[in-house]
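Z., the sequence and structure:
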Amino acid sequence: MKNRIKLSILTAFFLFTHCVLFAQIEKSKYWVNFTDKENTPFSIDNPQEYLSERAIARRIRQGISITGQDLPVDPVYLNELKNLGIQVINVSKWLNGAIVSSDNDELMDTLENYTYIASEPQLIKPAITDKTYEYNKFKNISLSGYPPYGFSSNQIEMIHGDYLHLLDFEGQGMLIAIQDAGFTNADKISSLQHIWNEDRVIAIKDFVKDKKGFFESHGHGTAVFSIMGGVIEGSIYGTAVKANYALLRTEDGNSEYIIEEYNWICGAEFADSLGADIINSSLGYFLFDDSLQNHSYNNMDGSTTPITLGADIAASKGMIVITSAGNAGDDPWYYIIAPGDAYHIITVGAVDDMGIITDFSSRGPSFDKRIKPDVCAQGANTVVQLPDGEIIMGNGTSFSSPIIAGMTACLWQTSPNAKSDQVIEAIKESASQYEKPDSLYGYGIPNFILAERYLKSLMTPHENTIITYTLFPNPVQDYLLLEIIRPLNAGDVTVVISFYNLLGTVIKQELRDIHKTHDVLEFDDISSIETGVYLVRIEFPGGVHTIPFVKIK
């Protein structure tokens, strides 16, 4: 496919317009809970029957037990439903239930009387005439790209992702599951061909199950995929171009009902069974076509909506779930949307290409006053490739989320034995306003140079009686980082940082406050120093340490 190296402005979350292409009538769909798993033929002692070797290894590595929650639903109960003429669509072992379809209202009204049904079935999507929508197109503007990242440079370099890439951490061996609305032409567009050629799409699965083909359903997931995996030299470069991927369609682009939250949970279970390390979810829910299903801000408390509960269960299995904060910042709703309120996931807001929060990025906090979003990345003028091959600039937290998801895979790759919560902690600690988080940026914009150092420090116990110093990168061009690890429980202190040339002349001096046991100080004005050899002198109360460094062009 010939690539058109032009960029359009596309404002999108699910990339919908109201241009109807075709329609079809569907049966009503319900959520059914089962009473137990007492007679399931599966066993905790034989997890290989329902979890992949990779999934089991991930749990062993993180010390996570396999429990009854992981056991598949009793197949006898599913067969009972099928014998009643009820179609089973998707099944959730975590919630011990199923999404089913039936046009027999009387049967569904009496289903709770069966001994294996725990409660009255919940209508999660009525019988409707579905409509299919296509995404907007806007006027093209021409720009010129430059290697190695092309148009993607800003969105990667803003979070210092180029540092991990330079060290050859680009997601090798990691598995990212993308849960989205569809993947139209994801198997055809040029930026993703290298992934298919290397057999790195390890699974595709459709949880919506309408009559459209998997690669014909919707283009949103394709754009998201390109942000992580896409490569066209001089044009687009993803944050995790060498990772493995699973493509999971859980969002129904034809309508908006709470069934999609249950689809999402089933998709997350499938990702877990594959052994996925990361789930990217550029999806979110608060308003539905049936207003009775709508969420309120009160529901954004981390423990109410189905998808939020599912996201935290997914996190408890050792996966890192990364989701969009939502695009409601300039709407009456204003706040984050589910599952962005989940406790143990990363919720991503959107900044522009200058690092300023966008008007549309949904605001925190969660209803119970926790910091949300967790971090931010570029979600305005983000470079993506569309299903038709066009390279565009898009707007939406849908696009800031995969930037962080792909780079998180690279970070975890640097310390593969780290637990998921340690990786999340490192990302937050590296962010620009970790010391003073707020409801706009959360902890701020991550710095993956710092995150890599923080993660290594979490994985490597240090002595309680000494102070260690590391200066990097060395040689240096533009900015210098000074890592200081102090004794545990060390108090706040002010240090003097002096830069000397070899003649002993002070060319730069600063006072810095140190609050943490492990801190990294950044000096971002090194580019103005002439090339040569210099010394950094760190003066603590009662101690002095000197480190040489080389300044290059």
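The radius of gyration is 25 Å. The CA atoms of residues 52 and 274 lie 6 Å apart.

Let me know what you think.
H.
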